[in-house]
Design a protein that fits this description.
By secondary structure, the chain is mainly α. It contains 19 helices and no strands. Helix content is about 65%, strand content about 0%. The longest helix has 15 residues.
C-alpha cells in the first residue's frame, strides 16, 4: 500500500484511472485512515480527468457493501469533495431524469443540507420527479415527512400509496401521526389515502372519526374509503349508519354498501337489501344487481330460501337469479 501511494506522489502528472480513484477512496475508508487527509485525497482525485459524476458513482458502488463506520466516512467524503453540490445542482435541471438522479444521490448519502430544495419538487409537473421527491422526504425526515401530504397538488397514485406504506412499515417502533388530520384535505385522493392508513396501521382510536364520514352529504370517495376501513378492521357495529346512506345515487358508494353487508349482513338485513336493490333501481345495473343477489344469497346461506325470495321480488330477473344459483354449484 505505501509503495503504491508513493508512486502516485512521485508521478504528479499521471492521470488517474477510475480503478485508481477507487483504490484511493477504498484506502481512505478501510485501510489506514490516518495516512489520508481529505486534502490529500482531494489532490489525488483532482489529477483525474474523470467527471465528478463518475466519482459519485464510485462512492455509491462502494457504499452498497459498507458497514456503518465506513458509511459515515464515505458520506463525509461526499460532502468534503463538494459532490453534494454537484448532486444539488441537478435538482434544478430541466431534464426530469437528471432531477431524479440528484434526489437519489442526496438521499443515498443521507445529505440533509438540501431538504428544502427537495421539498419543492413534491409538486413538480413530472409525476416521477414528485414521487421520488416525496419518498426522499420520508427517508430523510421520517414520519415527519408525511406533513407534506397537506401540500400535494396532484392525485396520489395507488402505486405511490403502496410505496409509502412500505416505507412506513420498514420504520419499526416509530410513532405514527394521527391520520385524521388529513381526512378533509381538498386533494381527495390524499384524504382517502389518509383514511385507509387508519386501517392499515390499526388506528382503532379513530373509529368515531371514520364513522363521522358516513354522511350522505360527504364526498362519495370519502364514504367509500370509510366503509373500506370498517370492513378491513372487521367492525360491524355501525350498520344503521351504513343503511342511512342507501339513498345515494353514487355507484361506488352503492357497491361499498353491498360489500359491507356481504361481510357483516344477517337475516335481519334481508328486507333492507331487498329495498335497497328495488328502490334504487339497482336491477338496471348488472354489476350492482348481481352483487346484491350474491349478498342476499350469502346472508340466507340456503339456496332454496334465496331462490324463493329472489323469485318473489325480482321475478323479471330470472336469468341473473339462476346465474347466482349456478355459481354455488
Amino acid at each position: 500500500f505505501l509503495a503504491h501511494h508513493k508512486r502516485f506522489k512521485q508521478n504528479k502528472t499521471k492521470t488517474l484511472s477510475v480503478e485508481e480513484i477507487r483504490f484511493h477512496i477504498t484506502n481512505f475508508l478501510f485501510r489506514n485512515y490516518s495516512l489520508y487527509s481529505v486534502d490529500t485525497l482531494k489532490s489525488i482525485i483532482k489529477k483525474s480527468k474523470e467527471h465528478n459524476q463518475t466519482i459519485i458513482e464510485i462512492l455509491f458502488k462502494i457504499k452498497q457493501t459498507l458497514n456503518d463506520l465506513p458509511t459515515l466516512r464515505l458520506e463525509y467524503l461526499y460532502k468534503e469533495l463538494s459532490l453534494s453540490q454537484v448532486s444539488a445542482k441537478k435538482l434544478n435541471d430541466k431534464n426530469w431524469a437528471i432531477q431524479i438522479e440528484g434526489i437519489k444521490e442526496l438521499v443515498g448519502m443521507d445529505d440533509q443540507t438540501y431538504i428544502s430544495e427537495i421539498e419543492l419538487l413534491v409538486n413538480n409537473p413530472h409525476h416521477l420527479v414528485r414521487i421520488e421527491a416525496f419518498f426522499a422526504m420520508l427517508k430523510l425526515k421520517g414520519t415527519e415527512g408525511l406533513t407534506l401530504l397537506e401540500i400535494l397538488e396532484y392525485p396520489i397514485s395507488d402505486w405511490q400509496q403502496m410505496q409509502i406504506i412500505k416505507i412506513l412499515k420498514e420504520r419499526v417502533n416509530v410513532k405514527l401521526p394521527d391520520f385524521s388530520q388529513w381526512f378533509y384535505l381538498a386533494n381527495i385522493s390524499v384524504a382517502c389515502f389518509a383514511i385507509r392508513l387508519t386501517a392499515i396501521f390499526n388506528q382503532t382510536h379513530l373509529i368515531n372519526k371514520i364513522v363521522g364520514l358516513l354522511s350522505i352529504n360527504e364526498h362519495p370517495l370519502r364514504i367509500q374509503a370509510a366503509i373500506e376501513v370498517l370492513i378491513y378492521l372487521k367492525i360491524p357495529t355501525f350498520t344503521d349508519q351504513i343503511k342511512a346512506l342507501s339513498t345515494t345515487n353514487n355507484k361506488e358508494v352503492q357497491l361499498s354498501i353491498l360489500y359491507f353487508f356481504e361481510e357483516f349482513g344477517t337475516l335481519k338485513d334481508i328486507i333492507f337489501l331487498r329495498d335497497f336493490l328495488y328502490d334504487n333501481y339497482l336491477w338496471t345495473d348488472d354489476e350492482l344487481f348481481l352483487l346484491g343477489l350474491r349478498v342476499i344469497k350469502k346472508v340466507f346461506n340456503d339456496d332454496s330460501r334465496f331462490f324463493n325470495f329472489a323469485g318473489l321480488y325480482f321475478s323479471n330477473q330470472q336469468a341473473m337469479i339462476l346465474q347466482v344459483m349456478e355459481e354455488s354449484k
